[in-house]
Amino acid sequence: MRLPDFLILGGMRCGSTTLANILNTQSSIFIPESKELHFFDQRSPTIKSLNDYAEQFSAATDIQLVAEATPDYFSTPGCMQWIHSTMSTAKLIVILRDPIQRAWSHYRFSVATMREIEPFDNALNLEPERLAHPIHEHDIYFSYLQRSRYIQHINHYLSKFAAEQLHVIFLEELNQNPEPVLKALFDFLQLDLQDGWQSAMRITNQASLVNIRDQSQLDQQQKTKLAINRMSARVLNSKLLMLFPRRSRDKLYRKVESAVEASDKLEQATIDRLNNYFSPYNQQLEQFLGRKLPW
Fold first, then answer.
1. pLDDT tens digit sequence for 159-181
2. Which CATH class is domain 6-214+268-289?
3. Rounded Cα–Cα distance for residues 160 and 158 (Å)
4. What does the CA dihedral 40, 41, 44, 47 come to, rounded to 10 degrees?
5. In what order do the strands lie in the sheet with 29-30?
6. Partners of residue 10 on adjacent β-strands
7. How much is the pTM?
8. 236 Cβ contact partners less than 8 Å away, ≥ 6 residues apart
9. Up-side HSE of residue 78: CA atoms within 13 Å toward CB?
């Protein structure tokens, strides 16, 4: 039975797709066509057993390392224990980014997929109450702060896995100066970095990488507004919604319009609030890594 030699654990909205695309350029690595298998968080509708999971890697050759990249594994309760009991020697890769950027990108994703209708500040205030409910979708779509407390999730994995099995990289450094980042990663995997990775470095979603600490860059986020509005229009005009009373529909319309408008900008007061919130977690992460963070 062939199981992964390493996992890209996440975090969510931190560049795991970019990283998986880079690794897919390497003949020494096999990643399934669907990089997110969602076996250990039990979200896959088809991969239910360990045999089902192993089957996803059956096309790999004997000389390839095999991997998958499901960002939800990093912070979803229960994943770490199951991963460890299944493949305790696997290596773990974590890709992170500025936690404020990650939380904001996560919020915009939730708005675009019509799960979130609250303004960002309200959503942050509601997060503890939402996550207290045993609904898995809440953990996926509303965990803006929880998924950005990186050191908590790292420490959780290190309660079972050795520190030598974990490698942390940063999206900011991968984008700014990828070659040394990738060489260090491939040293960790005990592989040689082959040419070809450069083709995977094209950024497909510039708006997700806008530096929200730099207010002069916020106009780049306009690139995603049209997509959000189109998604909203499709849902708001769906036949299913027409079954609701007119008053309820009008209330939802106003909520969605407000959320879409709010998701197009981030107030400086909110940035300051999040800087203060994440400061102790960032300090702990710096102490663990023994280096300054790139944000």
1. 999 999 999 999 999 999 999 99
2. alpha beta
3. 5
4. 20
5. 29-30, 65-69, 6-10, 91-96, 166-170
6. 94
7. 0.83
8. 249, 252, 253, 256
9. 8
